[in-house]
Amino acid sequence: MIHLKNIEKVYRTSSIETLALTNVNLHIGAGEFVSIMGPSGCGKSTLLNMMGLLDAPSSGQVEINGQTVTQYRDQELARLRNQHIGFIFQSFHLINDLSVLDNVEIPLLYRKGDETGSSRRQLAQLALERVGLSNRMKHFPGQLSGGQKQRVAIARAIVGRPSIILADEPTGNLDSGMGNEIMGILQQLNADGATIVMVTHDETMAKKTHRLVRLFDGSMVGDSTLMYNEQ
């Protein structure tokens, strides 16, 4: 599903060189729910960006669904992201001037397919129903709580029915109660077949996943199987 081989990422400026990732080898199979942990600045988000085709490695190889994408052009990467990958962010990234329903529909607008306006609207409604927000479709982000905003963000991530969901600190801005609700939704999406990779600082949330990958100073220092906890 996701295969990273000998990944290295170096950020360079005129005066400094920063090694963000070094010799990362990671395989994530279909249907796994993997958490990534490590101290701030260790390369967690950079690693997630590699999986999401938002950033390219300085060296090494990235495979998504059996396709080696390292040499893909920007247009090819954008199409692959849109068709196969859903993103969830800590800060929600909702557009305040659009309704909840319109926010969720956005990824479908970039697809070149047979979906009509009415079919896109129906898919957005179904995604919101799936996260328990069918009664908030006409609201705007400013009228929602943090937990509701994250539910909208999840609905937007899954509206295109991606096989991979990448979540960067999805519970980071929420209290423990709301965080557990969001984790429950992610667990259900995983049970329904989605492959999920989640960056988190929260050990409690990480223990609700199948597998824990630990990073330190850009290197993988741990990769352990967990006892999946659905509570």
Write up this protein:
One of its GO terms (molecular function) is ATP hydrolysis activity. This protein is of the alpha/beta class and 231 residues long. It has a single domain (30-57, 73-225), classed as P-loop containing nucleotide triphosphate hydrolases (Rossmann fold, 3-Layer(aba) Sandwich), CATH 3.40.50.300. It has seven helices and ten strands. The protein has helices at residues 44-51, 74-84, 100-109, 117-130, 146-158, 176-191, 203-206, and strands at residues 2-12, 17-28, 33-37, 59-64, 67-68, 85-89, 164-168, 195-199, 211-216, 219-225. The strands form two sheets. It has a six-stranded mixed sheet with strand order 6-7-8-3-9-10, with helices on both faces. α3 crosses α4 (117-130), α4 (117-130) packs across α5 and α5 runs parallel beside α6. The chain is globular and about 45 Å long. The protein starts with a strand and ends in a 6-residue tail after the last strand. The model has no long low-confidence stretch (mean pLDDT 91).
